[in-house]
Known about the structure:
Strand order of the largest sheet: 6-5-7-8
Oligomer: single chain
Radius of gyration: 23 Å
Number of domains: 4
Largest sheet: 4 strands, antiparallel
Number of helices: 14
Order of helices and strands: HEEHHEEHEEEEHHHHHHHHHHEEE
Helix content: 40-55%
Amino acid sequence: MGELAQAAVMHKLAPAQNKQIQFFDDAGNEIVISSNDVAKFICPKATEKEILFFMELCRAQRLNPFLNEAFLVKYDKNAQMITAETVLERRANAHPDFRGIKSGVVYLDANGAVCKREGSAAYAEAGETLIGGWANVEREGRTDTYAEITLKEYSKNQSTWKTMPGTMINKCARAAALRKAFPVEFEGLYIKDELRTVPTVEAVASNIETSELTGAIMALADLRGVGTQTVVDALANHARMNATGYTGGAMTDAQTGVALEIVNEWLLKAQNLPVEAEEAEAVSIDAETAEEADSGQTMSTQAVCKTCGNVLFVAPDATAQDIAFQCCENPDYEIRVG
């Protein structure tokens, strides 16, 4: 199972005493994070469950907490994940569809009229009152994405918010607009200045399987030059999906895990295809999956871990040695058909 599927099923895994994960960050560096490291160096107040969610979110978004790309903070009963603002700006600029961002402030002029300008300045000396921020993102192939937020909603009226409110609300508006413009790429990424509006780490993680699946389908469709619906239809006709009882529409958690596994395999295959072969491969996608669906396989094949009890749906001909996904520290899989 690939990284996409691992993130999707993470919340069903039995917690390990010192869970360790490995992944690659944006720069291609291999990152290793353990739950003990998070508890000791990043957020000692976090619960084991919050730590595991944080680790999986770091993997899903390729964030390196040891380079201060991601933080886990807990000021009350719930932990929150914070992302460095440089991560959002860097990724936006690296995205091939990104065409720029403009941002500024919203203020009341001396006559009480609502006005906007680029930048972070509102001039109290001229009778202006800062009331909000705005940002507009241009993305190739889409209409502009606009976000406008109020100072009252975000400001804590202390520290930097008190001395540099224009700068702070501008940064929050930019982050909000980038999340709207790139909903898959920036899922769950909030900067520290948005702390009052940041959801809990568990709430963010609960949405990860939907966004991961959507992103995987969109990426596959783009790589193969086919429509998203074609990929969805292909999934619905796939033998391994049929074995879970899936016939289309909304998926259960278990079905989402299988779909992510299949899509991840497709993505890896597509990325290794020669450029001239991609078009032919795209045309054959339905034929391939339809042939698999007609193979007569109707029984559900599961891998059950005898160590932690986790259940995975696997290919009908899979063996215990074929399963690359490590659900706990010492997995021991048993294949069951039924």
